[in-house]
Write a structure and sequence with these properties.
- By secondary structure, this protein is mainly α.
- The protein has 19 helices and no strands.
- Helix 4 runs antiparallel to helix 5, helix 13 packs antiparallel against helix 14 and helix 18 packs antiparallel against helix 19.
- The longest helix is centred in the middle third of the chain and has 30 residues.
- The protein is globular, with a radius of gyration of 21 Å.
- The termini are far apart.
């Protein structure tokens, strides 16, 4: 039964039984789950987190067999193909992405992020500037422009973006995607510049679902102490794309920094319910649980997730911290 296998996989994934979850998802797909459920997409995301890229691409292709026009599947398949350097598949999914301007813009962003991941901040900036696929003066290419600005900032080369941003903003003053990228540039240049905030606000007036502007304005609100307003903006960004946990993590991190550990824990748990292999959320939750001396069994299980899907050194440090706290607690017992 495809549905039964799917829900069994979901339960296994949420309780940290990832190998069993992979097998249950595969069994669901074999029983026809590609048509009834999102099993192929959940399996693909789990396999990507597990660094099994070729198998993940196979899983996404099951989604295409039943849903050939699914834009999220197209973009995710492109992301996986870029990560493994499969030129034929990259061209296939880029071609599929040309069906709509918004899909094409997102596909270009995915490709730009792949270029950046291969090269690191400094190399990424140079590689993106030389890549002939990206026209940074075209509003459709706002996604790649965002990626370029982010990596110029990380490489301490933000000044190189000034002329580009000024040029495209002058040519398209009422484009929400251009305004959002302009706001990002202004924020990186001076995070206290009120023009960055007003530029994000103008972008949202024109396009209320622009996630770059939503998260940029959320950061501005947080910096001025308007925490609840920032959380609400992050929540809006999360609702637009629940699979992308960046906004959800940012809201959780903000609450944790402000000392609202209980609320932060609830939010990290919510992230892990939807994306159980999110190593960043798991690591943050482990730290909060250690701080309040929570049940070590659950804490150790979360640490194993960090070890499997995240940074090995961070997982080792968390394991040592968990073990030391457990030992200390045992020694205090009468």
């Amino acid at each position: 039964n495809a549905a039964a296998r799917y829900y069994a996989a979901l339960a296994c994934e949420r309780t940290g039984k990832f190998d069993r979850a992979i097998e249950e998802y595969r069994q669901s797909i074999r029983a026809g789950g590609s048509k009834q459920t999102d099993a192929p997409m959940r399996l693909a995301r789990l396999l990507v987190a597990d660094r099994s890229m070729p198998a993940a691409l196979v899983a996404v292709n099951h989604r295409f067999q039943e849903h050939p026009n699914d834009p999220k599947a197209i973009l995710y398949a492109l992301e996986i193909a870029e990560s493994v350097g499969d030129r034929a598949q990259i061209q296939r999914f880029l071609k599929l992405s040309q069906r709509s301007p918004s899909l094409w813009s997102n596909a270009l962003r995915v490709s730009a992020e792949a270029v950046a991941r291969r090269a690191g901040p400094d190399g990424a900036a140079g590689a993106l500037q030389k890549d002939s696929r990206f026209d940074y003066r075209n509003p459709i290419h706002a996604g790649p422009t965002q990626v370029l600005i982010e990596h110029l900032h990380r490489a301490n080369r933000l000044s190189e973006a000034e002329e580009l941003v000024a040029s495209v903003a002058s040519a398209y003053p009422d484009s929400p995607s251009v305004l959002a990228v302009q706001g990002l540039f202004l924020e990186y240049k001076n995070e206290d510049d009120p023009k960055a905030r007003s530029t994000y606000q103008r972008a949202l007036e024109l396009d209320p679902v622009n996630t770059i502007a939503l998260q940029g304005l959320a950061r501005a609100e947080a910096r001025t102490g308007h925490i609840e307003s920032a959380i609400a903006l992050y929540d809006r960004a999360e609702q637009i794309d629940p699979w992308n946990t960046e906004a959800a993590r940012a809201a959780s991190d903000l609450l944790a920094r402000q000392g609202h550990g209980d609320r932060a824990e609830e939010r990290y748990e919510r992230i892990l319910r939807e994306v159980p292999h999110d190593a960043d959320a798991a690591a943050a939750l482990v730290r909060l649980r250690i701080a309040r001396k929570a049940d070590p069994k659950r804490t150790r299980e979360l640490t194993r997730r960090v070890l499997r899907f995240g940074n090995e050194e961070e997982a080792r440090q968390l394991s040592e911290l968990t073990a030391s706290r457990s030992t200390s607690a045992q020694q205090k017992r009468p």
